């Protein structure tokens, strides 16, 4: 527009003198880098309250300027709105965390928990409150509106591929898909464990098998509850059954 666009006034902004120039230098005779940075500077002023000496000098340039101002206004307000929402969410999350820690302090004082144990409890709570856990079905209320048929399809999609890593379920998927679908829908679920959580402990009755989807599990065997002559530890990785 500044060089080749139509002009009903015979003027273009590129043909004007550079502001504060003592040598009557015009924009169109300035170095290309200066022209480019001037155009970039002008574009940013359309989205912010900033200003600069470049002004539209014909109808086409002015219409283009008006369009840019409208687009800049929409962009600027959307950015401010998004930032405000994000800051509000962060503030609410911080307040909830502070309230939870304060309530924990009150509980520990009321129950007269020892200082060493109380410090361990508070440290672990603060660490875990700051972690972002993977979402499970319970964390997504929108899934509750699905029909049972669609829910079953979703469960098969989510759980079936993990079950079929075992040869038995792989054969079952070929022989009786309905049974595998029923197992996915009624007999399997996801659980999220953090560091130092126990998947199961010795002496407890097993409620089912476990499959490691992500992360690793440290499997410990002790002489008191196993045939091992001494304590042994084994790292169980992803896609493994327990």
TrEMBL record:
Q: What InterPro entries does the database record attribute to this sequence?
A: cNMP-bd_dom_sf, K/Na_HCN_channel, RmlC-like_jellyroll
* Alphabetical GO biological process terms: regulation of membrane depolarization; sodium ion transmembrane transport
Which SUPFAM superfamilies does this chain map to?
Answer: cAMP-binding domain-like, Voltage-gated potassium channels
Which molecular-function annotation in GO is an example for this chain?
voltage-gated potassium channel activity
Source domain of life is Eukaryota
The annotated regions of Polar residues compositional bias extend over 223-234
**Region annotated Disordered, chain positions:** 223-242
- One GO CC annotation, please? HCN channel complex
Keywords in alphabetical order: Membrane, Transmembrane, Transmembrane helix
Give the transmembrane ranges: 63-85
Protein name from the UniProt record: Cyclic nucleotide-binding domain-containing protein
What organism is recorded for this protein?
Answer: Noctiluca scintillans
Query: What is this organism's lineage?
Result: Eukaryota, Sar, Alveolata, Dinophyceae, Noctilucales
């Amino acid at each position: 527009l500044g060089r080749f666009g139509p002009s009903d006034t015979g003027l273009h902004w590129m043909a004007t003198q550079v502001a504060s120039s003592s040598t009557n230098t015009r924009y169109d005779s300035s170095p290309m880098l200066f022209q480019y940075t001037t155009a970039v500077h002008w574009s940013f002023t359309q989205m912010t309250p900033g200003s600069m000496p470049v002004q539209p000098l014909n109808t086409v340039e002015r219409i283009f300027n008006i369009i840019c101002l409208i687009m800049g206004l929409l962009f600027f307000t959307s950015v401010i709105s998004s930032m405000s929402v994000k800051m509000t969410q962060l503030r609410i999350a911080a307040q909830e965390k502070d309230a939870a820690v304060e309530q924990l302090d009150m509980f520990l004082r009321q129950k007269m928990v020892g200082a060493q144990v109380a410090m361990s409890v508070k440290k672990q709570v603060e660490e875990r409150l700051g972690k972002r856990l993977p979402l499970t079905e319970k964390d997504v209320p929108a899934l509750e509106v699905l029909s049972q048929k669609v829910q079953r399809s979703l469960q098969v999609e989510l759980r079936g591929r993990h079950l079929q890593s075992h040869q038995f379920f792989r054969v079952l998927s070929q022989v009786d898909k309905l049974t595998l679908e029923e197992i996915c829908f009624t007999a399997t679920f996801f659980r999220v464990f953090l560091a130092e959580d126990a998947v199961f402990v010795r002496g407890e009755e097993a409620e089912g098998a476990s499959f490691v989807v992500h992360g690793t599990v440290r499997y410990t065997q002790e002489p008191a509850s196993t045939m091992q002559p001494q304590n042994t530890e084994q790292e169980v990785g992803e896609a493994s059954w327990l």
